[in-house]
Amino acid sequence: MNTATLSAGTLALLLLFFSLFFQTFQQTDKLQEEDNPITRFQNYLRINTAHPTPDYLSAISYLKSQAQSIGNLQTQIFEFAPLKPLLLITWKGSNPTLPSILLNSHLDSVPAEPSKWIHSPFSAVRSSDGKIYARGSQDDKCIGMQYLEAIRNLQLKQDFQPLRTIHISYVPDEEIGGFDGAAKFAASKEFRDLNVGFMLDEGQASVNDEFRVFYADRSPWHLIIKAVGMPGHGSKLFDNSAMENLMKSVEVMSRFRENQFDLVKAGLKANSEVISVNPVYMKAGTPSPTGFVMNMQPSEAEAGFDVRLPPTADPDLLRRKIADEWAPATRNMMYQISERGPIRDNMGGPLMTATNGSNPWWAVFENAITTAGGKLAKPEILASTTDARYMRQMGIPTLGFSPMTNTPILLHDHNEFLKDSVYLRGIEIYESIIGSLSSFNEVSTF
Ligand SMILES: *[C@@H]1O[C@H](CO)[C@@H](O)[C@H](O)[C@H]1NC(C)=O
Ligand SMILES: [Zn+2]
């Protein structure tokens, strides 16, 4: 064939072929460019797992596909409560008889009000200075993906083989108490069979360059106190009205709250080391079409409090205080304490993980961070509450840790974000931690 026989039609076909080829090539290139740790994180953030309608199935299917793309990992889905799926990813160690390592994160997040955000809370927009805006970027989808990215790097870049088995759990419902999530998981036979020796769960951002670590949570109680009394005309002075009885209690409780707060203000204790008692609602009065009946003293009055106990507080002492001083029957008071989760472990001890020589995992964890060039702040009690309490209840040493330094604490806030560089640094930190923990060859009798 000589060039003279190339018709215009052939030329057009050739052109078409090249342009198609070029397009495909460009597309592949674009796809490859888009599949990196940051875009994988953004894609996870774009799945709306906010309450009250968290899309657990999409989140689990995404994480499962990530695990499959890494390879060498097994996945299992459990449902300890209907419509509350839990994903477990497992990387088998060379000695599966040794107690395993569990890395936990929750799938859900609190709701977001889009109108108060500069970018839509589920778009995961990355600003020019690297901030990735999304509900869940700090709490706690970062760690959920960082665990996987660290394992990806350990496998693909370092050809690392774990001695101990490593599990990652993705649990539902943490933000609404974890009762159908981590609580049921921790109490299950499936959990016992994992033979977990040490566990990491979420922590909180640090505003300076030291990583924070948490060895305990505070236990939340919902306290409702209620007063009853004779109703009476609004003009009448008489003893023991419901409102008077309730207000006396509020006074006593306010004084207690002030004393606890003073310890914090004086720098003697951290916020998370005292008992907090915060009023959250008051309910009284006789409704009228225009508001409340004003010339009538009601026969019932009620108030609700959010109470948080550090692990060092004595729950029996507080129960007695409530019965004797905050809602005494002698003042026609009733009360109801609803304990939102355990307060003591199965051996009767406080729910905390030792951060000294008595816990051999502590040194491994601490060294792993130092080895990766990180600095660790003094271990703290978390002011709020996480799923970790259910695992500590089972006697499993558990630390709360989210590797975010130089980051404002924005969990549950508008415009929650995490910087790309902080996220990527966190992956390196986890490579060191997971590598060290899974190579740890002692406490085999745990
Ligand atoms: C280690 O810490 C635990 C819990 O905080 C404490 O009870 C124990 O006495 C400490 N042990 C040592 C050896 O310091
Ligand atoms: Zn969280």
TrEMBL record:
One of its GO terms (biological process) is amino acid metabolic process. Binds 2 Zn(2+) ions per subunit. Keywords: Metal-binding, Signal, Zinc. Its cofactor is Zn(2+). It holds the Pfam family Peptidase_M20. One of its GO terms (cellular component) is cytoplasm. The active site is at residues 108, 174. CDD domains: M20_AcylaseI_like (cd05646). GO terms for molecular function: aminoacylase activity; metal ion binding. Residues 1-26 form the signal peptide. Gene3D superfamilies: 1.10.150.900, 3.30.70.360, Zn peptidases (3.40.630.10). Zn(2+) 2 binds at residues 139, 175, 412. Zn(2+) 1 binds at residues 106, 139, 202. InterPro entries: Aminoacylase-1_M20A, N-acyl_aa_amidohydrolase, Peptidase_M20. PANTHER family: AMINOACYLASE-1, PUTATIVE-RELATED. This is Uncharacterized protein.
